[in-house]
Design a protein that fits this description.
The protein has 130 residues and is an alpha+beta fold. Helix content is 24%, strand content 35%. The protein has one domain (2-123).
Length: 130
């Protein structure tokens, strides 16, 4: 079994947030890893709802804030909808996914967590007018 560290980074590589999940298979697809990350962050939010959600993708009806999303009071998030949205965001280059120093370009790619236990997510912001 392996432990993975999910890390959000800026485009320059500066860490923003991170958390770890133990007891994962040693090899896993990028799709499964993205879905696990989203399920975990949504479970943590739903266990202790707050006015702000710091997740990979914006929940429906949430307002964008610096490094997060403003949520309505007492609102729960559906992790499967969030995971589906994360897959769509990946396909349209909404974020980069790095396993170690290697960029993952397809959700079907396998990641060996014994070799690359740190998975970084870099959110890409569309340029105004571009």
């Amino acid at each position: 079994m392996a432990t993975v560290t999910f890390r959000d980074e800026t485009a320059t590589g500066k860490p923003i947030e991170e958390f770890s999940l133990p007891d994962l298979p040693e090899s896993i697809s990028a799709r499964e890893l993205v879905r696990l990350r989203v399920r975990e962050e949504v479970a943590r939010y739903n266990a202790a709802p707050a006015p702000r959600f710091n997740g990979l993708v914006r929940p429906v009806d949430a307002e964008v804030e610096l490094n997060g999303y403003r949520m309505g009071a007492g609102r729960r998030i559906d992790w499967e909808k969030q995971a589906d949205a994360a897959e769509r965001a990946f396909r349209r280059n909404g974020f980069l996914l790095l396993a170690g120093e290697r960029q993952i370009e397809d959700l079907s790619e396998l990641i060996d967590l014994t070799v690359d236990p740190v998975v970084s997510f870099i959110k890409l912001v569309p340029l105004v007018g571009g």
